[in-house]
Design a protein that fits this description.
Helix content: 10-25%
Oligomer: single chain
Strand order of the largest sheet: 3-2-1-4
Order of helices and strands: EEEHE
Number of helices: 1
Number of strands: 4
Length: 87
Amino acid sequence: MIGFWDRGKPASAACLYVRYKTGDTDYEARLLASKARVTPSSNKTGKPQVSTPRTEMRGLLFLAQLITGVLPSMVAKPGSIFLAGDS
């Protein structure tokens, strides 16, 4: 299982992929789940107050929620989980 999170200027997102063996040396990866959210504005004037560490952590939180939500329903559990972010 491979998870990736990222922060963009207006939003945070996370994607969860599953990789499986299709042959002796061949592998295939598929998107299993994803989640994204627009960064809320915290200013009364509507101007976005973007905090890079906060939006990066929000993406990681989305990824953790995806993993904990998907793992119990999987019939074949993954041998390993790899998480990646760009920070």
